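Structure first, sequence second, as always.
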């Protein structure tokens, strides 16, 4: 009974780790896409500084008007967020590996006790 309850606790922990990893990946993807949009807006801003045909310039201005503030601090904030989420993913992945290994050991222990 003790082995089975430990296995159930470990299975819950493994599922929790997997859910957290999925959530972290979604947040990381969100930050990465926002960073790409910010970089594109920065490039459009610098493209407006050089000579261009009016049609291209108007298109760039329209795209630039749709973007949020393109300040340097937001870019740094996104970079730090991306680093934090990557670190969290590493920690969660390691935790998942440890919990999975413990679960496997408990399964083997249960099989040994049952004589299978």
């Amino acid at each position: 009974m003790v082995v089975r309850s430990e296995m159930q606790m470990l299975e819950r922990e493994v599922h929790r780790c997997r859910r957290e990893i999925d959530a972290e990946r979604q947040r990381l993807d969100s930050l990465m896409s926002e960073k790409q949009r910010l970089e594109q807006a920065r490039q459009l801003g610098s493209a407006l500084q050089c000579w261009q045909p009016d049609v291209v310039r108007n298109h760039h201005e329209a795209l630039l008007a749709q973007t949020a503030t393109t300040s340097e601090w937001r870019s740094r904030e996104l970079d730090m967020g991306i680093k934090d989420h990557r670190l969290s993913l590493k920690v969660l992945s390691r935790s998942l590996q440890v919990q999975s290994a413990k679960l496997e050991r408990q399964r083997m222990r249960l099989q040994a006790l049952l004589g299978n």
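Margin note: The two ends are 16 Å apart (CA to CA).
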